[in-house]
Amino acid sequence: MGQLNQNPPLVISFSESGNEVAEKIATALSVEAQPYKKGEMDPARAAVERGFQQGRPIIGICAAAILIRFLAPFLADKKTDPPVLAVSSDGKSIVPLLGGHHGANQLANDLAHDLNAHAAITTASENIFGAGLDEVPFGWTLVNPKSAKRAMASLLAGAKFHIKGEADWLAQHPAHDPDGEVQLLAHIHHREEQDAPHYVPQKLVVGVGCERHCPADKIIDLIKSTIKANKLHPKAIAALASIDLKADEVGLQQAAAHFGVPLRVFTAEELAAERERVPNPSAIVEQEVGTPSVAEAAALKAGTLLVEKQKNKQATCAIGIAEEVIDPQLLGRALGTVYLVGLGPGTATLRTPEADRALRVASDWVGYGLYLDLAADAKTHQTEHRFDLGEEELRVRHALELAGTGRDVALICSGDANIFAMGALIYELLVAEGDRAISDAAKRVAIETCPGISAFQAAAAKSGALIGHDFCCISLSDLLTPRDDILKRLDAAATGDFVTAFYNPRSMRRTDLIEIAKDKFLAERPDDTPVIIASNLGRPAERVRVVTLAEFNPEEIDMLTIVLFGSSQSKSFVRGSGERVAYTPRGYAKKAAKEAAQ
């Protein structure tokens, strides 16, 4: 009866004896398990905490107390906390700990069937009636949960309920009786009774047409007034629908978000196929976009037209209704999205939650093979599209065209995607013309940037606070930047006394620019200026050192290394632990001295 959380579950074992059960559960759910490795309790705990905060269902093969202790600081609200289940290491007992009526009980019962195990359901409604009134199936919404709680209390006291409307899943409830004294509502209209639980089926599709750059409030107000005039409930809307030419219309996207539903789009040909059923065709619209109707034709994709075209000065809408609840995924296609994901230095612990979420919700991953491997811990069901080093434009073009078909695509970069990575290239291709032009569909996709921790930030963080004052970043690669421009920037950074991070410092072909950089900076600052050399950040072979500018050896540097030169004010010292650290003062000592003198 319940609807599972849409995030992929995290299946994780906390003992070697539980790894086999974890693998069985992961196979049943079509995800990858995270097995336990000896001595790795802390990474497992971090994965559970991160997954819970991301809203992922948690299935731990462990004692219930382990999950309780790990997650206790993060518990917020029963309506928002994701399902959490504890499974014994032998797979015989499955205990829903959180989210019983929000997917956990259903998941426990499903897994019990798959594993021939016992689901230890502890919620009273399940034990008495087999289901709770606040646990609704896909395509239904309970719009007044507090009333369901009161009704359930009456049922637990021995009452029966009757249904006003139609809902097969409620009619199968053990407490259902046509003459029952507790009333439940099940229809798409505004509820008349304030105290009765009201279940609304999502059977409506709102077709929308609008002028280019139509403000969202014009669309929202039109839909609201149409819904109200026809005494419909807004929660009965399953989707907004329009022509694919409007896929990038911000007002439409914001309107869909306002009603909490997806925006689905159709081609002009698909909408034109409804011309015989459209009551208000327009020759002008057909001439402009290739179909005699947008709003009514899109609404008809639900099945039957319930409300004909309504309009204001900038938008039109119509409402269609289906016989059964609608799965929006089967309606037209989605607005495709490219998630521009920065992985950070490479470890999951230094990946931002926003980047982690994008990796998991994407249907496709596009990127250089090494970067895809660094994100492997976040993979569940995604299709990988691997490219070689140097194929940057090919991979960005591929990601945009994939998204143009309605897919959610993660374009994966190391560090931060907007720092010497793919961010600028995406926008360059969106306006490219001629041979470099991408398709119209690819130009309309949504772009969502998920920032990451760049290499210069990670290197500085691991060795003190060298970027505590003004800094800049320079790429020494002359593949895309003219060599003369790089030399000008080296002069500017050196004479400007910036802390400077050097990306792509050296390659097999290009060896002298980092040597030239050393000479230019030595001419402007002391020999003992600290230099950070960081290699393979976030990877097993990671190495971070602090040396002086005079002793810095450019021949030790490769393309997996980032180098930071300090300013003339930067300093370094050896801590009691023997670790040499570097920092750049902000000027607080001068400020304190000035205040003391006053």
UniProtKB/TrEMBL annotation:
Keyword Hydrolase attached: yes
Domain of life: Bacteria
Pathway connected to this protein: Cofactor biosynthesis; adenosylcobalamin biosynthesis
GO MF, one example: hydrolase activity
CDD domains: Precorrin_3B_C17_MT
InterPro entries cross-referenced by the UniProt entry: 4pyrrol_Mease, 4pyrrol_Methylase_sf, 4pyrrole_Mease_sub1, 4pyrrole_Mease_sub2, CbiG_N, Cbl_synth_CobJ/CibH_dom, CobE/GbiG_C, CobE/GbiG_C_sf
Keywords: Cobalamin biosynthesis, Hydrolase, Methyltransferase, S-adenosyl-L-methionine, Transferase
Keyword Methyltransferase attributed: yes
Record-linked SUPFAM superfamilies: CbiG N-terminal domain-like, CobE/GbiG C-terminal domain-like, Tetrapyrrole methylase
Segments forming domain Cobalamin synthesis G N-terminal: 48-126
CobE/GbiG C-terminal domain mapped to chain residues: 204-319
Domain Tetrapyrrole methylase: 337-552
Name used for this protein in its record: Bifunctional cobalt-precorrin 5A hydrolase/precorrin-3B C(17)-methyltransferase
Organism annotation: Maritalea mediterranea
Origin organism lineage: Bacteria, Pseudomonadati, Pseudomonadota, Alphaproteobacteria, Hyphomicrobiales
